[in-house]
């Protein structure tokens, strides 16, 4: 009996080769993925179980834990795909072995075609389900991208608002400095006016004393009294000028009060803006919670995708069982049947398409894992931006409190200035009354001088009448002696007045020198303030440490007015709740003094 060797049809060989090729490609991908992971499957399953247990307990995962969970799930999925590919390879080998004994049984081939059609339909259903799942994931990715775009726009808007608040705070700080300088100038002018008023009062008292002394010798000192009268008038003119200066100072102080009132309004508006920004930050926190819920939904979708893969594995097991049954049936019906070549060629094309679709789905799964990882990075970036915005808000609150404190200090200084001005007005009123009294006294002195002049003329005429028109030489000598003595006294008084005037000029010069010193100190203080503001601006530019167990090193540049500074700093985050930070800054111009800060942050 001649033995017949059964040769598998070319179509079946092509199908088996395609299945073996798919298993080889999937096995290569799985092997590459397994080589890129340092964890065994037991460790992967243990890590996933631990993270899922954390979610089961109601705790919220951190961003890095979410990324880790997604990566481990992807590794588990790839491992399952590798096992399924191996099973497919085994099934292909088994099918190849079976086709060697099939022969040409036409009736069995038709049954096989029917089963293949059913399998194709089932595969189509699975592909359709996978496509729907893929479309759902794509839609979720698009929604998440839109959410991320919205968060980015919100962060950008918040950054713009923070910049506006910083600008308003800097303007308020400039106005506060200007008000401080104006108040210092007002204090200096008030002190100078007080000194001048006191000096003028002393000079006036000295003039009155001289006038009272001259009144005793009025007959011999007419010319000197006239000179003193002129000086008294000059004092009156000087006092009038001082009155005008004080009135101008009062008007300048009133203008300063208006400016400080405007500053109070600006501080109030800035405080309101800060409150609005805090409310906006709370709203942004709610939006971040919504984003976290969206990521949880994506994780749930990934879990459903994993379940679909497990269902596919179960289907492969059923297919293996069916292949075993087919082998038993083929052993019983091994007398051969003719194959329908055209239908098998069609089935071959369908199976090749299915293989390509399955391979594309595996690639799309890899792309989904990459997109999820990028989404986790974007979420971490948004978290950092939110933390930076919250830090800017805290700095704005601090600057607003400083501005408010400075405004309160300005109000207290203005109240003190008002009290001093009220006292000066009272002193000016007293001086005006004294001047009026002095005018009355001078008028009385003029009347007495005229009366004494008439008396002297009458005495002179009486003396000449007694002497027959001749004057006694001895009496003239005595009279000249008395006149000389009186003249010496007048000269002595004039010397005293000149010395007092010289001392007054010296004191005025000393006051001017002190004013110049104060101006120099104010200018020096202005430089120090600008250097300090520049240093603080540089220190505020240093970044907060974010990643746990990482040391962050940063540098920044700051400027205020014409001054600038550079700063360097470092930070370390011990855990998600505790972090340390420190920095140092130095000015690049002027005194080049340094500033530093150290800080600790605990979140709960």
TrEMBL record:
Secretion signal, residue range per the UniProt entry: 1-30
Protein name, as recorded: Trimeric autotransporter adhesin YadA-like C-terminal membrane anchor domain-containing protein
Domain Trimeric autotransporter adhesin YadA-like C-terminal membrane anchor: 543-604
Compartments where found: Cell outer membrane; Cell surface
Major location category of this protein: membrane
GO cellular component: cell outer membrane; cell surface
Alphabetic keyword roster: Cell outer membrane, Membrane, Signal, Transmembrane, Transmembrane beta strand
Classification via InterPro entries: DUF1079, Pilin-like, Ubiq_surface, YadA_C
Name of one Pfam family that matches: YadA_anchor
Record flagged with keyword Signal: yes
């Amino acid at each position: 009996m001649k033995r017949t060797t059964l040769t598998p049809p070319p179509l079946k060989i092509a199908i088996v080769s395609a299945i073996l090729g798919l298993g080889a490609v999937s096995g290569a991908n799985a092997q590459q993925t397994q080589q890129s992971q340092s964890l065994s499957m037991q460790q992967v399953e243990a890590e996933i179980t631990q993270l899922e247990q954390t979610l089961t307990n109601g705790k919220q995962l951190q961003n890095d834990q979410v990324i880790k969970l997604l990566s481990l799930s992807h590794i588990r999925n790839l491992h399952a795909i590798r096992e399924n590919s191996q099973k497919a390879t085994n099934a292909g080998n088994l099918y190849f072995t079976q086709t060697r004994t099939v022969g040409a049984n036409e009736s069995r081939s038709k049954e096989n075609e029917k089963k293949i059609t059913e399998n194709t339909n089932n595969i189509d259903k699975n592909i359709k389900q996978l496509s729907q799942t893929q479309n759902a994931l794509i839609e979720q990715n698009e929604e998440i991208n839109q959410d991320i775009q919205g968060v980015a726009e919100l962060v950008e808007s918040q950054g713009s608002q923070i910049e506006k608040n910083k600008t308003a705070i800097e303007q308020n700080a400039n106005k506060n400095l200007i008000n401080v300088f104006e108040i210092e100038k007002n204090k200096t002018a008030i002190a100078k006016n007080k000194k001048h008023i006191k000096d003028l009062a002393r000079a006036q008292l000295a003039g009155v004393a001289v006038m009272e002394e001259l009144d005793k010798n009025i007959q011999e000192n007419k010319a000197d009294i006239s000179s003193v009268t002129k000086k008294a008038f000059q004092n009156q003119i000087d006092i009038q000028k001082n009155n005008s200066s004080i009135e101008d100072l009062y008007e300048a102080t009133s203008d300063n009060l208006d400016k400080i009132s405007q500053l109070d309004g600006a501080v109030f508006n800035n405080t309101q803006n800060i409150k609005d920004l805090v409310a906006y930050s709370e709203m942004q926190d709610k939006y971040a919670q919504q984003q976290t819920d969206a990521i949880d939904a994506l994780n749930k979708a990934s879990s459903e995708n994993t379940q679909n893969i497990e269902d596919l594995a179960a289907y492969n097991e059923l297919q293996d069982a069916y292949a075993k049954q087919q082998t038993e049936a083929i052993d019983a019906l091994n007398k051969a049947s003719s194959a329908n070549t055209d239908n098998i060629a069609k089935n071959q094309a369908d199976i090749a398409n299915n293989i390509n679709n399955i391979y594309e789905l595996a690639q799309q799964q890899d792309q989904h894992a990459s997109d999820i990882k990028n989404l986790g990075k974007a979420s971490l970036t948004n978290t950092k931006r939110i933390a930076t915005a919250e830090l800017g808000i805290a700095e704005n609150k601090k600057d607003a409190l400083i501005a408010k404190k400075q405004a309160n200090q300005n109000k207290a200084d203005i109240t003190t200035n008002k009290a001093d001005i009220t006292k000066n007005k009272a002193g000016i009123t007293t001086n005006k009354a004294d001047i009026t009294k002095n005018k009355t006294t001078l008028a009385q002195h003029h009347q007495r001088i005229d009366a004494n002049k008439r008396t002297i003329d009458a005495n002179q005429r009486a003396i000449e009448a007694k002497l027959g028109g001749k004057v006694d030489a001895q009496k003239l000598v005595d009279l000249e002696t008395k006149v000389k003595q009186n003249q010496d006294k007048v000269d002595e008084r004039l010397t005293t007045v000149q010395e007092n005037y010289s001392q007054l000029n010296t004191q005025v010069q000393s006051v001017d020198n002190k004013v110049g010193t104060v101006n120099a100190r104010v200018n020096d203080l202005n430089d120090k303030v600008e250097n300090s503001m520049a240093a603080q601006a540089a220190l505020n530019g240093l970044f907060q440490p974010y990643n746990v167990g990482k040391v962050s090193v940063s540098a920044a540049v700051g400027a205020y007015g014409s001054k600038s500074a550079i700063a360097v700093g470092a930070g370390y985050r011990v855990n998600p709740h505790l972090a340390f930070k420190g920095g140092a800054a130095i000015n690049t111009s002027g005194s080049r003094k340094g500033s530093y800060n150290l800080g600790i942050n605990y979140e709960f």
